[in-house]
Amino acid sequence: MDQDGTNTSNFVVRVVDDDADARNFFCRSLERESIETRAYASADEFLSRDDLRSPGCLILDVKMPGCSGIQLQEQLVETGCPLPMIFVSGHGNVQMVAHSMRLGAIDFLEKPIEPSILIARVHEAFAIDREWRNEHADRDRAKKRLARLTPRESEVLQYLVRGLPAKRVAAELDLSHKTVQVHRANIMAKTGIDNLADLVRLVLLASGQAEDAAAVDGEQPAERG
């Protein structure tokens, strides 16, 4: 269980460090808390053996032979890997810390590290990863619902979510008022939504704007015309 009571039994911490003693220390500390770990001696070994699909996080050493921890982070960010990253180092510097944080690292810890601090940061990483995956799942579900619409219905939808009344939409698309009303009814039926506010939320979720979707408050006034 995570600190908030959430089941994290399927979460995995990947430890990437060329120092065998450090790898063993990290893995032992986490496994005592029933946290699954995978240890890799290099970035190349990690990239060739880990499928990246299991939720969890990474613990990365900054300086390693070959591909460094920072270079590995850059590669993973470029490919869209969602796993939160915690950097560890015996000789970090301000430039390294700033660069890794700009790329999304959640912390930069200097060796030696207290096990309690390490475990606390890992739980924070799990919470971040869980939130991202929940948002990603919500976005996928929203996209699937909108994919049921025809191209014309999708076009009408874009005008409706801007708050334009049916008569205005009809004028913009050179359609009859009745046709727009039919499209609107089909959109509501196919998405399973019966009010404009929820329709706006759905479109925002599908476009990856979860925070904006959550901010849409209450049902909007009924459309006129």
Main β-sheet, spatial strand arrangement = 2-1-3-4-5
What is the share of helical residues?
40-55%
Oligomer: single chain
User: What composes the largest sheet?
Assistant: 5 strands, parallel
Strand content: 5-15%
Order of helices and strands: EHEHEHEHEHHHHHH
The low-pLDDT segments are none
Topology, number of strands: 5
**CA-based shape:** elongated
What is the mean predicted local confidence, pLDDT?
Answer: 88
Q: Tell me the Rg in angstroms.
A: 24 Å
What's the N-to-C terminus distance? Answer: 54 Å
Number of alpha- plus pi-helical segments: 10
Structural class: alpha/beta
Q: Would you write up a description of this structure?
A:
The protein has 225 residues and is α/β, with parallel strands linked by helices. Helices cover 53% and strands 11% of the residues. The protein has ten helices and five strands; from the N terminus they run βαβαβαβαβαααααα. A five-stranded parallel β-sheet has the order 2-1-3-4-5, with helices on both faces. Strand 4, helix 4 and strand 5 form a beta-alpha-beta unit. Helix 5 crosses helix 9, helix 6 packs across helix 8 and helix 7 packs across helix 8. The longest helix is centred in the middle third of the chain and has 32 residues. The chain is elongated and about 75 Å long. 27% of the residues are buried.
